[in-house]
UniProtKB/TrEMBL annotation:
Protein name: Glycerol-3-phosphate dehydrogenase [NAD(P)+]
Residue span(s) of domain Glycerol-3-phosphate dehydrogenase NAD-dependent N-terminal: 8-158
Enzyme class: oxidoreductase
GN (gene name): gpsA
Residues reported in the UniProt entry to bind substrate: K107, R254, N255
E.C. number: 1.1.1.94
Pfam families xrefs: NAD_Gly3P_dh_C, NAD_Gly3P_dh_N
Reactions mediated catalytically: sn-glycerol 3-phosphate + NADP(+) = dihydroxyacetone phosphate + NADPH + H(+); sn-glycerol 3-phosphate + NAD(+) = dihydroxyacetone phosphate + NADH + H(+)
UniProt-listed InterPro entries: 6-PGluconate_DH-like_C_sf, 6PGD_dom2, G3P_DH_NAD-dep, G3P_DH_NAD-dep_C, G3P_DH_NAD-dep_N, NAD(P)-bd_dom_sf
Sites where the protein binds sn-glycerol 3-phosphate: K107, G135, T137, K190, D243, S253, R254, N255
Localization per record: Cytoplasm
Binding residues annotated for NAD(+), in chain numbering: G10, A11, G12, A13, W14, G15, A139, R254
Molecular functions (GO terms): glycerol-3-phosphate dehydrogenase (NAD+) activity; glycerol-3-phosphate dehydrogenase (NADP+) activity; NAD binding
Amino acid sequence: MTLQRWGVLGAGAWGTALAVAALRAGREARLWAHRPEIAALIAALHENPDYLPGITLDSRIGASADLASMRDCDALLLAVPAQHLREVSERLVPIWPQGRPVVICAKGIEQSSGLTMTALLARTLPGVPVAVLSGPTFAGEVAADLPTAATVAATDAALGQAIVEALAAPRFRLYWSGDVTGVELGGAIKNVLAIACGIVIGRRLGDNARAALIARGLAEMMRFAVPRGAKPETLMGLSGLGDLVLTCSGRQSRNLSLGIALGEGKSLADYQAGRRSVAEGIWTASVLRAQAEAAGIDMPIATAVDDILNRGAAIETAIGALLSRPFRAEG
């Protein structure tokens, strides 16, 4: 399988960083931007000042707002926000040949349908080979060639290995996995938990509380994902625990930053006003809570985040509810 020409759909920070990583691995890379002005800026300045300022882009990274420009690529990296993946994938139908792979690089669950990203693409792009790339990956650090490791998951082992061989580099280490469910759910759930960690930081509840929340959040992730087929070792790996620790600790995390702002007293509307970046946990929280309740799975942290974001709960009330839960055996 020859994977030399890569198209990256989504010219935000992560998509731009992936194009840089692909070029660094010796591949060709071109970006598709939803907004024509972003494509024009990248072409003119060799920089993405709106989403990844300060990173000089190689002139060989092309940028276009025409989706048809991706037609002759060998593979696609789908770095559009999770809630927009359906629309973009439907637009790919007349353009993208069935035999060529796409790699999902978004972390989330579609709010309107409750579908994971791979389940969504199975409906919109049937017959197209699909993989998932996920892990502890801040875009700015990837673009700056700081050491990073992530996971590529595919049910077809040969496809997963081919993607790793095409995109990996000494400072962008990729590992392949057959556990698509575990890799997807780990990446989606950690966004919700990061908002909770941010609230802890914003409320100045201390590092003990943040560490406890990460550990108990991991337990919630396991309770939700393992019955759906995820492997525990995947959730303890890069795309689960690794990504959870990063996004609950590093202030480059959009979900953590949102939680901090909420904890400091800002409203969700005020935080979102004028922001271009997306905190996927806002949408994942409600669908995660609904699916957990339908399955009888106890996820108090995710429920508290949904209460705060979507049900008007006061932060102090949600924290009080968590702290007043009955004492029990750890597990």
